[in-house]
Amino acid sequence: MVRISNLPGRVAYFSMDMAVDPALLTYSGGLGVLAGDTLRSAADLGVPMVGVTLLYRKGYVHQRLDSFGNQIESYTEWSPEEVLEPLPARVSIPIEGRQVQLRAWQYFVRGQNGHNLPLILLDTNLEGNEPWDRTLTDHLYGGDDRYRLCQEVVLGYGGVVMLRALGFHDVRVYHMNEGHGAFVTLGVLELLTKNETPEAPLEAKLEKVRGRCVFTTHTPVPAGHDRFASDLVRRVLGEERAAILERIGCYEHGQLNMTFLALCLSRYANGVSMCHGDVSRSMFPGRKIGAITNGVHAVTWTSPPFSLLYDRLIPEWRKDNSYLRYAVSIPLRDIRRTHREAKRRLFEQVWRRNWIQLDEEVLTLGFARRATAYKRADLLFSSLERLRSISRRVGPLQVIYAGKAHPRDETGKVMIRRIFEAAAAIGADVQVVYLENYDLTLGQYLCAGVDVWLNTPLKPQEASGTSGMKAALNGVPSLSVKDGWWLEGHVEGVTGWSLADGAESEDSYHMVSCSLYDKLEHVILPLFYREPDKFAEVMRSAIALNGSFFHTQRMLAQYLLNAYSVEPGEPLASPDHPQPLAASGGRLPVEGNGTAASQESKIHEHQVPTSQDER
Ligand SMILES: *Cc1c(COP(=O)(O)O)cnc(C)c1O
Hints:
Layout: E1 2-4, E2 10-15, H1 30-45, E3 49-54, E4 62-65, E5 71-74, H2 80-83, E6 85-95, E7 98-110, E8 116-123, H3 131-134, H4 145-165, E9 171-177, H5 184-192, H6 202-210, E10 213-216, E11 227-229, H7 230-237, H8 239-248, E12 251-252, E13 255-257, H9 258-264, E14 268-271, H10 274-283, E15 290-291, H11 298-301, H12 304-313, H13 332-354, E16 363-368, H14 384-393, E17 397-402, H15 410-426, E18 431-435, H16 440-449, E19 452-455, H17 467-473, E20 478-481, H18 486-489, E21 496-499, H19 508-530, H20 532-547, H21 552-564, H22 596-600, E22 606-608, H23 611-614
Parallel strand pairs: 2-3, 2-9, 3-8, 9-10, 10-14, 14-15, 16-17, 16-19, 17-18, 19-20, 20-21
Antiparallel strand pairs: 1-22, 4-5, 6-7, 7-8, 11-13, 12-13
Bound molecules: pyridoxal-5'-phosphate.
Pyridoxal-5'-phosphate binds next to helix 1, helix 16 and helix 17.
């Protein structure tokens, strides 16, 4: 039995992007799916957690594609009233010198044992607010810097204030999922020091904030971190709060860096795969940054056919995902038959959505992710000649694509058009389908129904990636550049196949594409067509080795052990000897037993049931 006896209280989990339900348009992609899967596993395990995000009445962009692959964008207005419960609480927070009122909506993430985990969705569309302020919770990843900064104030600062107003007095851990939520630290600072004089030393106050905050960074490239010009920050937050931020030392070249802010004021920080931990440490030298590799919610991402198979042969898998390890003994014919069913379900969708009938006998590659330059969706088509020749000589293949470009990502849009061009040029030999509006529902069909899941990012830009984990749960091997999670998940020829990463090469694009053609021609196609049992063995190992590990149940247990819990012997922060800022960012002393805070904490002990518990 794992006993998490030192979880100091409730965890408040802040994420700008949150995918909990296909009916809630509050997500765009990977970050949101991870956040939603985290809440789902917390609900399953009964971890005391509350999620916080924004309402986004107009959601994220809806994608349609014309026959040339031009992205046609629209925004779907959805009705929160139909799926969410309005809460009576109102709070107001200062933005640009105005008092902006917030309300909250509640959604319950239901765990497998009936535990309900609350998700709070913040909303500024209230009558007393200025027209512009009322739009602040309309769009996810839309608008300019000012709009975005105001949104981040609502999420982080407003979220802390709202949780208090809603009566969540037992929150002891504030988890910022990516830097968007970093103003949580400001909210916590004011909450914990409201009875102190303004003259009290700032460092001692910050130390209290550090005792409560945990931060996960997701961005392996410096340009990806949120930054705001200092005059904008002063305008939006006011002189007083901006001055505090400036004293914390989270500015760089005159800009507030949200990642710095979160790093400076967290007692634990982590990247989302082992290699992303390394990348993050080199980006922020001197900071202590750990690594907890992402996962996916196994029950959500396992297709109905495989769920039935596991229910029959490994019934423990739902409660304890690590039982998927015993997929090693599933008969290969069951693996093949079940995958065939998932493939048929996907092809039915392709027919219904695009009026294209794909051939079930043909090796099908899948590629679905945000259309953006570094993901290199078009890499498969770098030499149409070679691809055509492989399909003619070795065996036929077909490809299914999906993915939206951010409305302002012009190179992402070019990428989609290039795939359409390639598809038109090679269509006689290789059937290519691009499905519109990649979302949770489509993701479930896709990751389960193709034969090989392709991933060709420019290393080291894939912090983790999670779609390959969804594929693994469904016995779909990956063919991927060794970056992110795949560095940990790949066993060559056993769980899938890896591509040259080309990281040190001048012409990484060419190198990776050559390696891709070589693997298809000499390894994957021959195996698929000539040794179906050997191919099915790879499928089975993908489940047993990767499905059993890369799930959010394991990931959440790691957060409980490494990030949320307080070591029993951990010394208390001494206000007389404040830690210098330069030494912060890592695991710092937090409140332990005997402080007023831990005594008022309602939850001293929390147990995570494990298999032994149940048997
Ligand atoms: C899983 C998922 C993602 C993230 O997948 P990556 O491998 O990280 O690109 C993005 N969008 C949707 C809809 C998903 O289901």
